[in-house]
Amino acid sequence: MTNDHLLRSRPGARHRLVLLHGWGADAEDLLPLGEALTADQPNPVELVALRAPELHPQGVGRQWYALFPADWSAVPAACEELSQRLQSLSDGDCPLERTVVLGFSQGAAMALASGCGLPLAGLIACSGYPHPGWTPPQERPPVLLVHGMRDEVVPFSASETLQSLLNGDASSPRAELQASDEGHTIAAASLPAIQAALSRWWS
């Protein structure tokens, strides 16, 4: 463990899954999910859970930028910092081309805003939303959107908006939207679709 991330390395790992937690959580929040998603992969996968840089205003957990009220002016710098952190992970055994980034809620918004411009194997945005004025780059990795239709924190329509934005360019890979009948969580019913995407992108 370092100050900014948690690492679960695997001997001989040639693929990497990066986890970005939501507002008020911390790096360890998504590690059990990462373990479950990669347990049946045929090749070892390195797990990296990044810690958001700012303390949550209530003193427990972290945030990528202030929310409630949202400080949208802080988003560009936060995204640039995260992009640099993702690029710094790349190495000979696990380059960005074999790295998938998965984010939840605020972490999903950050994953898309910071990762769509990188040559990643794929992006998974769970219960995410678009930052105001965000436009996906013309060339981007494949994206899987996962969202509960009963989400009381980030409405399901936010992922519908993301899908529309991402699919606006016919030359880019189509963004898939996996809906569940759950609230603001990563539903167990969505895990097979996520695992299938990982297998497809890492094959």
Q: What is the strand content?
A: 15-25%
Q: Which second-level CATH architecture applies? A: 3-Layer(aba) Sandwich
The CATH H-level superfamily is: Alpha/Beta hydrolase fold, catalytic domain
* Rounded Rg: 16 Å
**Class based on secondary structure composition and strand pairing:** alpha/beta
Instruction: Supply the number of structural domains.
Output: 1
Please identify the top-level CATH class: Alpha Beta
The residue fraction in helices comes out at 25-40%
Number of helices: 5
First-residue to last-residue Cα separation: 29 Å
Shape: globular
In spatial order, strands of the major sheet run 1-3-2-6-7-8-9
The poorly predicted ranges are: none
CATH topology: Rossmann fold
The largest sheet is: 7 strands, mixed
Descriptive report:
Helix content is 28%, strand content 21%. The radius of gyration is 16 Å and the shape is globular. The strands form two sheets. It has a seven-stranded mixed beta sheet, sandwiched between helices. A two-stranded antiparallel sheet has the order 4-5. The model has no long low-confidence stretch (mean pLDDT 94). The longest helix is centred in the middle third of the chain and has 15 residues, at 75-89. It has one domain (5-202): Rossmann fold (3-Layer(aba) Sandwich). The protein has five helices and nine strands, in the order E-E-H-E-E-E-H-E-H-E-E-H-E-H. It is an alpha/beta fold and 203 residues long. It has helices at 31-38, 75-89, 106-115, 156-166, 191-202, and strands spanning 5-8, 15-20, 45-50, 54-55, 62-63, 99-104, 122-126, 143-148, 176-180.
